[in-house]
User: What shape does this take?
Amino acid sequence: MIDEEPAGRAEIRFENPSRTLPDITRRTFGRRVAWSGMGALGCVAGLTGGLAKPTVAAHHESIPLPTALLERSPFVYISPLLANGAESTCHAEVWYAWLDGSVIVTVASDRWKAGALAQGLHRARIWVGDYGRWKSWLGRPDEAFKDAPHFDARAEKVEGPKHVERLLTAYEAKYPDEIANWRNIMRSGNADGSRMMIRYTPVPG
Assistant: This one.
């Protein structure tokens, strides 16, 4: 499903500003990421979280970034934008790190996020939070994540062992119970080209 671009910019305001992301136990988080490929399987999974639902008001200034959520959320949902500005059909949730004001991910090179860059599509839309699997067990899209704070970003490929190791260090702290299953896959994949690191830098809406 492709949504039309909103007519104006928006400012995100939370109904309960004091509410933060729910604490995630190791058992609960393990169940969530068991169904997520952290980008390796492209359009993947997660389970429902409990973010406060934002309200959106028309605004003509830049959209404020949801920085606090970017620092804590276990997932972001990313949709590469097509040449006409429309969202792609894939909105998969993925592991990420918030580094130097950008969202950093590593994905398999045969997946759409990497393919979009190869086709010269350098813009993406990103939603922040844990709103559950973006697709049901039957493959039907679940767009609950579109209630999440979001922003547009410029995508670019990131290369080099030092960048990979920095991302893995961030993942070690953020996903301590799961990274052991992915560390070597991510390290070797970025070395041999079967995986790609992508930096998404926020841009004005």
